[in-house]
Q: What sequence folds into this?
C-alpha cells in the first residue's frame, strides 16, 4: 500500500483511510439507481499515525466535516465517475489536513492617518448634505 503524502515530512498509510461507495443523488439518469459512484472518505483522527500537533489542531478546527467523535468524513458526488469522486475526496482530505500546518502571521494593529480621517469625515459630511437637500423645507417663521 502506498502512503498519502500530506506535507514534505508527514505522510499517512493508505490503510488508515476507510472508503465507502454509495449511490449518488442528482443527475445521471438510470446510472444513479444502479451504480455507487459517490465516494465517502472516513478518517479517524485519534487512531491515526499523524503527529500530535496535527491531531490537536484538527480536533480544534471548526469544520463541518469533522465529527464530535474525532472522525473526518468527506463525501464527494460531483462526478458520475467513482474514480473521479474518490480522487476529489482524497484531494479535499489532504487540503484539510495540511491546512492546520499553516501558521498565519499576527496582524500588527495600525492607526489611520490624519489625512484619511479627514477624508472620511469630509465624505460623511458631503453625504449628509446631499440627504438633507432632499428633505421638504420646514415652514419656520
A:
Amino acid at each position: 500500500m502506498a502512503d498519502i503524502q500530506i506535507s514534505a515530512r508527514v505522510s499517512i498509510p493508505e490503510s488508515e483511510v476507510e472508503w465507502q461507495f454509495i449511490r449518488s443523488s442528482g443527475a445521471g439518469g438510470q446510472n444513479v439507481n444502479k451504480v455507487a459512484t459517490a465516494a465517502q472518505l472516513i478518517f479517524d483522527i485519534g487512531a491515526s499515525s499523524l503527529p500530535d500537533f496535527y491531531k490537536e489542531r484538527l480536533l480544534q478546527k471548526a469544520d463541518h466535516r469533522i465529527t464530535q467523535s474525532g472522525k473526518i468524513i468527506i463525501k464527494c458526488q460531483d462526478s458520475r465517475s467513482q474514480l473521479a469522486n474518490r480522487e476529489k475526496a482524497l484531494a479535499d482530505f489532504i487540503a484539510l489536513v495540511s491546512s492546520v500546518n499553516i501558521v498565519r502571521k499576527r496582524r500588527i494593529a495600525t492607526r489611520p492617518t490624519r489625512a484619511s480621517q479627514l477624508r472620511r469625515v469630509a465624505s460623511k459630511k458631503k453625504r449628509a448634505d446631499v440627504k438633507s437637500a432632499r428633505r421638504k423645507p420646514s415652514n419656520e417663521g
